[in-house]
Amino acid sequence: MKLFGKSDKIIQRILIVEDEPLVAFDNEHFLREAGYDVVATVDELADAIRVLDEEKVDLVLCDLRLRGEGDGTDVARYAAGKNIPSLYVTAYKPPEEEDAAVGCLAKPYTAKMLLSALAALETHLAGKKVKRPPPGLTLYRQPDGALPR
Asked: For the domain that residue 126 is a member of, what is the CATH number?
């Protein structure tokens, strides 16, 4: 629905998958303050799968290193199988198989950088070209597998 020229956001409900408690807390706070609904914050694959099976999620913010079995690429692949895009948020080099996620935001990042990355993702997921991705953000393929335009 459009209201006064503004279209609905593609990204409203976010799952945070992060093993660093302070980063997870900061992300939750920044996202809620910006009007996003944080569905859950978890730190391991099994919990992420449970949330993805039980809740409506528009985007997964996923660190690569997690607690327990599995890692962020496993979460991203599971989410992709449910047509839910994932954005890696990591200090580590993402894997070469970038088809599991729609992009990567390099750590460390600020709240402003995270919100700028989400705005760019809105454009990217709408199938439009992101003219200049914000610093630290690398975009990969569209959720349907198409390369960014």
From this structure: 3.40.50.2300
* Domain-embedded: residue 135: yes
> Can you give the residue range of the structural domain that contains 126?
13-139
> How many independent structural domains does the chain possess?
1
7 in a structural domain: no
In a domain, 52, yes or no: yes
Query: Which pLDDT score is estimated for 1?
Result: 44
Residue with token string 């705005």 = 119
pLDDT tens readout for residues 48-69 = 999 999 999 999 999 999 998 9
Beta-bridge mates of residue 67: 44
**pLDDT computed for residue 7 by the predictor:** 54
**pTM of the full predicted structure?**
0.88
What secondary structure, in 3-state letters, does the chain show? CCECCECCCCCCEEEEECCCHHHHHHHHHHHHHCCCEEEEEECEHHHHHHHHHHCCCCEEEECCCCECCCCHHHHHHHHHHCCCCEEEEECCCCCCCHHHCCEEEECCCCHHHHHHHHHHHHHHHCCCCCCCCCCCEEECCCCCCCCCC
